Amino acid sequence: MGGRGGGEVELSSLIIPGGESTTMAKLAEYHNLFPALREFVKTGKPVWGTCAGLIFLADRAVGQKEGGQELVGGLDCTVHRNFFGSQIQSFEADISVPLLTSKEGGAETFRGVFIRAPAVLDVGPDVEVLAHCPVPSNKVLYSSSTVQIQEEDALPETKVIVAVKQRNLLATAFHPELTADTRWHSYFMKMTKEMEQGGSSSSSSSTIVSVGETSVGTELAKPDIPIYLSN
Asked: Which residues have C-beta within 8 Å of that of residue 54, sequence separation ≥ 6?
């Protein structure tokens, strides 16, 4: 990605946060950000998508608004854009996170904050499932003018996938930044360190950038393309 004056900002990682995914997609298309985002995903550097960021990283999405929306892709999964319902149906739940616990210690559960959240309906063979969330027995997974799948047909275990990892891509349907539990952030930082240690050229000035949120890192130049994301 370019900085002011034509310079280049060396990024070590990228976070695509929550927001209104349709608006994010329209703005990313308007500012021609999709090619750069897809190229970054292909570099193998860690990318973390939360909530709307999960939708962005998915290869396939359902439950979209009329006309659909463009996706960055790279994560072999199908995501339902608005699986858990409207804004007023947002909720918190304790979810089992065995891998996170084994890597970062702490409690066996994580308090997931789901805000008009998506969910992963299916994953490819290379995708590691990191967490599930219980689903009420009468929950409709998704519906459209042509398809309606009830929970008992699709998820007999009454749970849905809410966190996944595929190589350099991490995605969560919930918002870890809204809790005091920093284990997901620590896990992602270690992904970045592993990438830097394995790479042939890592710079002390490399940064972690969160698209649409406050950047974390050092010596980060302002991008020459404004980014406006809706929360």
From this structure: 75, 79, 118, 120, 171, 172, 173
**pLDDT confidence tier of residue 5, bands split at 50, 70 and 90:** very low
Q: Which of 77, 80, 132, 175 is catalytic?
A: 175
Q: How many separate domains does the chain show?
A: 1
30: domain CATH number is: 3.40.50.880
Instruction: Please tell me which residue, 186 or 28, carries the higher pLDDT value.
Output: 186
Annotated binding residue at 21?
Answer: yes
19 is in an annotated binding site: yes
Predicted local distance difference test score (pLDDT) of residue 147: 40
Does 81 show up as a binding residue in the annotation? yes
Q: Is 175 a catalytic residue?
A: yes
Tokens read off for 123: 């994953």
Return the number of other C-beta atoms located less than 10 Å from residue 64's C-beta: 17
> Does 24 map to a domain?
yes
Verify whether residue 177 is a known catalytic residue: yes
Which of the two residues, 97 and 86, has the higher pLDDT score? 97
In a domain, 23, yes or no: yes
Catalytic residue among 104, 177, 196, 213: 177
Nearest residue to 210 (alpha-carbon basis) of 179, 188, 190, 187: 188
Residue 35 lies in a domain: yes
Residue 20 known to bind ligand: yes
pLDDT in tens, 183-226: 999 999 999 888 877 764 444 444 445 554 433 333 334 334 33
Instruction: Provide the pairing of β-strand 91-96 with 75-80.
Output: unpaired
pTM above the 0.85 mark?
no
Catalytic residue among 51, 77, 133, 151: 51
Residue 141: give the domain boundaries.
Answer: 11-210
38 is in an annotated binding site: no
